[in-house]
Please model this.
Amino acid sequence: MKILVVGAGATGGYFGALLARSGEDVTFLVRPHRAAVLRARGLRITGRGEEWTLEPRLVTADELTTPYDLVLLSVKSTALTQAIEDIAPAVGPDTAIVPLLNGLAHVEALNARFGAVPVLGGVAKVVTTLSDEGDIVRLAPLAHLTIGEQDGSPSPGWRRSGPSWPRPASTSSSRRT
Model:
């Protein structure tokens, strides 16, 4: 499964790094400045007894040319409009989009651009932050994802199995289907 994580900040970066570390095919869509930091330092996870670095696969918006199976969208709401345009080349007929943003306005915007079928509901509960150096610092053991169809129905096809959602030590993780 090809996974595109949009945003390599405290939330998207954390869950994307866990997926990549567990062996999933993960690419991070990042802005040029963040790409430079990640190329120089790697994607670093620290805190709560963890310290590890991932050498992430990175793309910028102008480099996207093919669809992905899953797009994990984790950007600030102020960046949503641009992110929707940026991911368009990565969204094909079988792509699922999982937004992890505050509020609900993003769901309407994604549905308007891509239709309701590919857009799942997503809730992330994680206590992380970015350090001044751009490292992801885990502040508490909580790390939980809930993902499902907008209408609450069972997910069709591959969406039932999805990627191998990893569980960091001392956390919970779930996926609703």
